[in-house]
Amino acid sequence: MPSVLIVDDLLSIHEMLDAVIQPTGFSTAFATDGEKALARYKAEKYDVVLADIDMKPVDGITLLKQIKSYDPNCVLIIMTAYASTESAIQALKYGAFDYLQKPFRVDELISTLKRGLEFRHLSAERSSTAALPTARANDIESRLAGRSGRVQKLIQQVKKLAAVRTPVLLQGENGTGKSTIAEILHASNAAADAPLVRIDCSLSSEANFRDGLLGQNGAGGAWVSQAKGGTLFLQHLQCLPMAMQKELVSVLRNTAQGFRLICTTSEDLEKLTDEGQFHDELFYRVASLPVALPPLRDRTDDIPVLVKHFTARATNPHFDSNLIEFTDDALSVLQAYHWPGNLSELQQLVVKIAATTDARIVTSQQLPMRLREVKQWPSLADYLAGQQKQYVERVIHACQGDRAVAAKVLGVDVTTIV
How many domains does the chain contain in total? Predict the structure, then answer.
């Protein structure tokens, strides 16, 4: 039975919460201040901690920091009065799972506890990838092609996320595969006919956001209703107007249990939040499980696998596309390119070549000139070494070729440089 540690200095709150939580399948335990709560948590780890923010001598945020220091996977939900909302948002920053503003509804409390329990299972890795159906696990590996360590780590992360409905933030440059992962997570965690409502925040107008996303009184608009039972997929979240971001928080608080939320961004939302350009509470709500997708230039070892993966999806009028092969020299050219468009750019190129080639073997000469003439930049170390050598040579010249004098001027053995 999942357990909840309730921390509040009012015994009447203990009694009230015990009465509403026990019937829902949670066992309850109690502490009257943060110090006692920490001792109880260390003695017996609880699945969820529900703590008031305003306690003495150890308040809720101090308790949060102490418990997180002891157990980073702890799920702590803050209870706060209206006047302490700013403190509650700070608690989200320090790692609180969520906060409940008093007086809160019973259904809101139970929903938050259940979401916290789900998050606890994932964070503690008790949600084993073995529990994911084999067919779905295989689908993840086939769609996220690659053998590099970074991709294998990403695959394992996606497998774990596929087993739960916790909000996910997908971070990475355009074209790195964020939409593909969102589709995988949706298909792995929803019924076959469940809706995937895709909203591009970079394209919609404020009027559309208000009608489709926000609705009236924080109840959510048409897009939120359509996503019920499925997934609400917000692309390019950094483009959502600031005026809409605060209102979206209210929508998520009221409706998040009805759908899975997946967001994507190509920018550093944490940095934007610190600079005041993104709403802090919205960031802490969507970024509890961030997934970073590497750019293709950082995983060029995967290019041969990706080329084969994309080639198989082409349609060639002459022969089976599975038989098409790229020569080693062609693959070397592809691996040397910097791929500003990432996976999307590579896929478009490979599919086009595989669909139009009249030869089963694709050589480097069939690749676009822009790839074959890519400039090979020296490494930073080589560049700096070259700059140092040029400087030493100028000093030697100024010393009329006397290396001994130049060595005294520079304070180094110039023979090791030039």
Answer: 4
pLDDT over 70 at 376, yes or no? no
At residue 232, the pLDDT reads 94
| Whether residue 288 sits in one domain with residue 167 | yes
What pLDDT is attached to residue 282? Answer: 93
pLDDT per position as a tens digit, 275-314: 999 999 999 889 888 999 999 999 999 999 999 999 998 9
State the amino acid at position 25 in one-letter form: G
* CATH number, domain with residue 69: 3.40.50.2300
Tell me, yes or no, whether 129 lies in a domain.
no
Relative to beta strand 168-171, strand 260-265 is: parallel
What radius of gyration do the chain's Cα atoms show? 28
Q: Which domain holds residue 355?
A: 296-372
The SS3 call for residue 194 is coil
Mean pLDDT, rounded, for 233-239: 96
Domain boundary among 123, 158, 175: 123
Q: Pick from 241, 257, 255: which is nearest to 208 by CA?
A: 241
Three-state secondary structure along the chain? CCEEEEECCCHHHHHHHHHHHHHHCCEEEEECCHHHHHHHHHHCCCCEEEEECCCCCCCHHHHHHHHHHHCCCCCEEEEECHHHHHHHHHHHHCCCCEEEECCCCHHHHHHHHHHHHHHHHHHCCCCCHHHCCHHHHHHHHHHCCCCCHHHHHHHHHHHHHHCCCCCEEEECCCCCCHHHHHHHHHHHHCCCCCCEEEEECCCCCHHHHHHHHHCCCCCCCHHHHHCCCCEEEEECHHHCCHHHHHHHHHHHHHHHHHCEEEEEECCCHHHHHHCCCCCHHHHHHHCCCEEECCCHHHCHHHHHHHHHHHHCCCCCCCCCHHHCEECHHHHHHHHHCCCCCHHHHHHHHHHHHHHHCCCCEECHHHCCHHHHCCCCCCCHHHHHHHHHHHHHHHHHHHCCCCHHHHHHHHCCCHHHCC
| 400 shares a domain with 363 | no
